[in-house]
Write a structure and sequence with these properties.
8 strands; mainly beta; Immunoglobulin-like; 4-stranded antiparallel sheet
Length: about 90
């Protein structure tokens, strides 16, 4: 079984929404499934966590940059006729 990723949806997001990973629209059933209030992706979603002191210091000094993969998960939904975006949802290993 391949590694999967779970993204928990906030309670205020309605049942009709669109999902984007790094700006690319995802299709329900093909790119993700829904389990309760969670989006489940059949692949790992790269998410760089907090930078440690040494990594931050090396970037500040210009010794190294941050080259780790980092994908963002965003959900677009309608609230009272306005389009809203919930961005920066945290992917977790499933």
């Amino acid at each position: 079984m391949s590694p999967r990723t779970r993204v928990e949806l906030p309670d205020y997001i309605p049942s009709a929404f669109e999902v984007y990973v790094s700006g690319v629209r995802q299709e329900h059933g093909r790119d993700f499934t829904i389990e309760g209030r969670s989006l489940v992706f059949p692949r790992p979603i790269a998410h760089e966590g907090k930078l440690g002191f040494w990594r931050w210091a090396s970037m500040w000094l210009g010794i190294a940059g941050t080259y780790r993969g980092h994908e963002t998960v965003d959900v677009v939904y309608s609230d009272g006729g306005r389009r809203e975006v919930e961005t920066g949802l945290q992917p977790q290993p499933y």
